[in-house]
Amino acid sequence: MDIKKLAEISENIVFDEEMKRHTTFRIGGAADAFADVGSAEEIAALIMACRSGDIPYIIVGNGSNLLVSDKGIRGLVIHIGRNMSGCVVEGEEIFAEAGILMSALASKAAAAELTGFEELSGIPGTLGGGIFMNAGAYGGEMKNVLEEVTFLNADGGIETKSADELELGYRTSVFQTKPYVILSCRLKLKKGSADEIRAKTDEYKKRRTEKQPLSLPSAGSTFKRPEGYFAGKLIEDSGLKGYSVGGAAVSELHSGFVVNRGGATAKDVSELIEYVQKTVKEKFGVNLEAEVRFVGEK
Fold first, then answer.
1. Rounded CA gap, 107 and 125, in Å?
2. How far does CA 172 lie from the centroid of its chain?
3. Which one, 118, 187, 203, 223, has least CB within 10 Å?
4. Helix (H, G, I), strand (E, B), or coil: what is residue 25?
5. Which of 108, 116, 60 is nearest to 84 (CA)?
6. pLDDT in tens, the chain (298 residues)
7. What residues are labeled active site?
8. CB-based burial, 59-76: b 16+ in 10 Å, e otherwise
9. Rounded Cα gap, residues 210 and 84, in angstroms
10. Of residues 102, 91, 86, the one with CA closest to residue 150
């Protein structure tokens, strides 16, 4: 199937779209096609067309945990973002679509004087990405506030499962092993004090600003936390703070972050990550697993 025929299914498609515009790393070559989708029906139709036409596809959110190949992505990128970012508060529950940003969701919760989402307020991804990764920060995790998730199943049907059916663990969920597409969810929070919620959110923001390299493009924490250790400390103790390959560098502010100092390529980042992993393994015998996801043509 000619990929251009996908435009007959969705009016939201553009072709040869530079993925560096859609990742927080500001890295990545062009995707053959890019659809900023607006409904479950549109997603299902595009996926069915891709499957029948032998066109590869990938689902992305805010691109905050992605390293896209310099050669780009073959096939279709289905972007769940601003066109699917609805949010409704009912009592102590929030019904939200997958494309809403975590920061925007935190603001909605705070405005409704609902507490429990403050720790997650600074995560730079979408809600869908947060569920996919079971994102967490400062002791909070998505699974702590998640009640249920609605998603497209492998057959294009819409299903809803409770949080305890989603295999939520440290930076993992069932969505990483099944061909499901997260559409929306229901969160359960608690009534709180507006002043206390604001104070907690401000404190987490202050800690992030002081300790994380927010002024440079990155994909957040580059490595998962090894059991019994902190990735950033292992990297720093290996003498790698500031170590660079091309435009990519281990952050001077927080060694757990690889940053784009300007003009970094995916190749630069990949080589730097591999060097860090090799060095930490040699010095401490610890395997660092990348938290960032590598996608695109090799």
1. 14
2. 12
3. 203
4. coil
5. 60
6. 899 999 999 999 999 999 999 999 999 999 999 999 999 999 999 999 999 999 999 999 999 999 999 999 999 999 999 999 999 999 999 999 999 999 999 999 999 999 999 999 999 999 999 999 999 999 999 999 999 999 999 999 999 999 999 999 999 999 999 999 999 999 999 999 999 999 999 999 999 999 999 999 999 999 999 999 999 999 999 999 999 999 999 999 999 999 999 999 999 999 999 999 999 999 999 999 999 999 999 8
7. 171, 221, 291
8. bbbbbbbbbbbbebbbbb
9. 32
10. 86
**Length of the chain in terms of residues written:** 298
Count the helices and strands in the chain (H runs, E runs): 6, 19
Token representation of residue 245: 């390959």
SS3 for 103? helix
Query: Which tokens is 190 given?
Result: 């608690």
